[in-house]
C-alpha cells in the first residue's frame, strides 16, 4: 500500500546498517585485544555475521509489530481524511500501535461529536434567525406604541419631579436626625468605654487588696500559732514553778528539822545549824521567787489567752472581710462584663446608625440625581422620539442580517452533510 514499507526493503536497510556497525565493532575489538592475521578477520566476520543474524530476527519482529499494523492505521486515517468518521480502527490487530489506534478512534469520536454539535448549532441558528425576523416585524408595531408612551412619560415626569423633590427634603431631614443620634451614641460609647476602664482599674485594686489580705491572713495565722505556742509553754513553765515551790517547801521543812536536830546536838551541831538556817532562808527565797514567778506566769497566761481570743476574733472578722472583698471582686467582674456587653451593643448600634446615615446620604444623592434626571426626561423624550425613527432603520438592517444569517446556516448544513457520521 502507498505510504508503507515492504519487509524486504525494511530488512535490506537494516542489514546494511548492521553490517557497517558489525565491521566497525569487530575491527575495534580486534585492535583492543590485539588480534593478528586470520584471528583478526575471523573475529570481525563472526561479529558481523552474528550481528546480521540477530539484527535480521529483531528487524522481522519489529516489522510485524510496528510496520505491518501501520497499514490499518493509515487506512483509518485516509477514511477520516475522506470524511468517513463512522469507521473504526480495530485496536486488536495493530499490536504495539494500540495506543495510536485508540487515540485515532477517540479523535474520530471527538470529530463526530463536533459535527453533531455544529449541526445542532446550525439548526439553532436557523431557528433563531427565523425568530429574529418575526421579532423585527413585531418591532415595527411596537415603535409606534413607544412613541405614544414617550409623550405620556414626559407629562408624568413633571409630576414625578415634584414628588421626588418633597421626598428629597424628607430624606435630608431624616439623615440630619440620624447624624445627631449617631453623634450621641458615639459620645455614650466613649463614656461607656471610660466607665469600663475605671471598673477594670477598680477590679485590679480589689484583686491587689485581696492578695494583700491573703498575705495578712497568713501572717495573722502565723502570729496566732506563735501566741498559742507561747501560752502552752507558759503553762509548762507554771507546772515547773509549782514543782519548784513544792521542792522549796520540802527544803524549808527539811532545814527546820535539821535546825532542831542541830539544837539537840548542842555545841557540835552549831555549824550544821548555821547551814540549815541558810538553807531555810534560800528555801524561803526560792518559795517567794516561785510565788512571784507563778503570779507573773499567771498574768502572762491570762494576757496570752486574751491575745489568742482577740486574734481568733480578729481572724474571724478578717475571714468575713476577705469574703466580702471577694464578693466585691466578683461584683466588679460582673460589672466589667456587663459594661463590656453594653459597650459592644453601643458599638453595634453606632455602626448600624453610621451605615443608615451613609445609606441615607446615598439616598439623598440618588434622589438628587433622580430629580436631575426627571428634569431632563421631558427634553430627552423628544430625543427618544427621534431615536425611534432610527430604530426603524436599525430594525430593517437587523432583518437583512437575519436573512444573511439564515443563508450562512444553510451553507453550513450543506458542508456538514459531506461528513459520514
UniProtKB/TrEMBL annotation:
Transmembrane helix recorded as keyword: yes
CDD domains for the chain: HAMP, MCP_signal
The keyword Cell membrane belongs to this UniProt entry's keyword annotation: yes
Tree of life domain: Bacteria
TM stretches of this protein: 12-33, 39-61
Domain spans labelled HAMP: 64-116
GO biological process: signal transduction
Main localization (coarse): membrane
Cellular component terms (Gene Ontology): plasma membrane
Pfam families for this protein: HAMP, MCPsignal
Alphabetical UniProt keywords: Cell membrane, Membrane, Transducer, Transmembrane, Transmembrane helix
Subcellular location: Cell membrane
Domain Methyl-accepting transducer residue range list: 135-406
Family listed: Belongs to the methyl-accepting chemotaxis (MCP) protein family.
Protein name per its UniProtKB record: Methyl-accepting chemotaxis protein
Lineage, uppermost ranks: Bacteria, Bacillati, Bacillota, Bacilli, Bacillales
Amino acid at each position: 500500500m502507498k505510504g508503507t514499507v515492504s519487509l524486504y526493503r525494511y530488512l535490506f536497510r537494516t542489514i546494511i546498517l548492521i553490517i557497517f556497525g558489525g565491521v566497525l565493532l569487530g575491527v575495534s575489538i580486534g585492535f583492543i585485544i590485539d588480534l593478528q592475521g586470520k584471528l583478526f578477520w575471523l573475529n570481525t566476520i563472526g561479529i558481523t555475521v552474528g550481528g546480521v543474524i540477530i539484527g535480521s530476527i529483531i528487524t522481522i519482529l519489529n516489522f510485524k509489530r510496528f510496520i505491518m499494523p501501520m497499514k490499518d492505521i493509515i487506512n483509518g486515517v485516509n477514511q477520516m481524511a475522506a470524511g468517513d468518521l463512522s469507521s473504526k480502527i480495530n485496536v486488536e490487530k495493530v499490536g504495539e500501535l494500540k495506543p495510536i489506534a485508540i487515540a485515532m478512534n477517540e479523535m474520530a469520536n471527538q470529530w463526530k461529536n463536533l459535527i453533531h454539535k455544529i449541526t445542532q448549532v446550525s439548526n439553532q441558528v436557523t431557528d433563531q434567525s427565523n425568530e429574529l425576523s418575526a421579532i423585527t416585524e413585531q418591532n415595527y408595531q411596537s415603535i409606534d406604541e413607544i412613541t405614544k408612551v414617550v409623550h405620556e412619560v414626559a407629562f408624568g415626569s413633571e409630576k414625578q419631579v415634584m414628588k421626588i423633590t418633597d421626598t428629597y427634603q424628607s430624606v435630608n431631614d431624616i439623615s440630619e436626625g440620624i447624624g445627631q443620634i449617631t453623634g450621641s451614641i458615639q459620645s455614650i460609647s466613649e463614656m461607656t468605654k471610660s466607665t469600663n476602664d475605671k471598673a477594670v482599674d477598680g477590679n485590679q485594686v480589689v484583686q491587689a487588696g485581696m492578695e494583700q489580705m491573703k498575705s495578712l491572713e497568713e501572717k495573722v495565722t502565723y502570729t496566732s500559732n506563735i501566741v498559742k505556742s507561747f501560752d502552752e509553754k507558759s503553762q509548762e513553765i507554771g507546772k515547773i514553778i509549782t514543782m519548784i515551790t513544792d521542792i522549796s517547801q520540802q527544803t524549808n521543812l527539811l532545814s527546820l528539822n535539821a535546825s532542831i536536830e542541830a539544837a539537840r546536838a548542842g555545841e557540835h551541831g552549831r555549824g550544821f545549824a548555821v547551814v540549815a538556817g541558810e538553807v531555810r532562808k534560800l528555801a524561803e527565797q526560792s518559795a517567794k521567787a516561785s510565788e512571784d514567778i507563778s503570779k507573773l506566769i499567771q498574768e502572762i497566761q491570762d494576757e496570752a489567752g486574751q491575745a489568742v481570743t482577740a486574734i481568733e476574733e480578729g481572724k474571724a472578722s478578717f475571714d468575713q472581710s476577705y469574703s466580702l472583698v471577694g464578693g466585691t471582686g466578683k461584683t466588679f467582674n460582673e460589672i466589667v462584663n456587663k459594661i463590656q456587653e453594653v459597650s459592644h451593643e453601643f458599638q453595634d448600634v453606632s455602626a448600624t446608625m453610621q451605615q443608615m446615615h451613609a445609606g441615607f446620604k446615598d439616598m439623598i444623592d440618588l434622589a438628587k440625581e433622580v430629580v436631575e434626571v426627571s428634569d431632563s426626561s421631558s427634553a430627552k423624550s423628544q430625543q427618544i422620539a427621534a431615536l425611534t425613527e432610527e430604530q426603524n432603520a436599525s430594525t430593517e438592517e437587523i432583518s437583512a442580517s437575519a436573512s444573511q444569517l439564515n443563508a450562512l446556516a444553510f451553507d453550513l448544513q450543506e458542508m456538514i452533510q459531506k461528513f459520514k457520521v
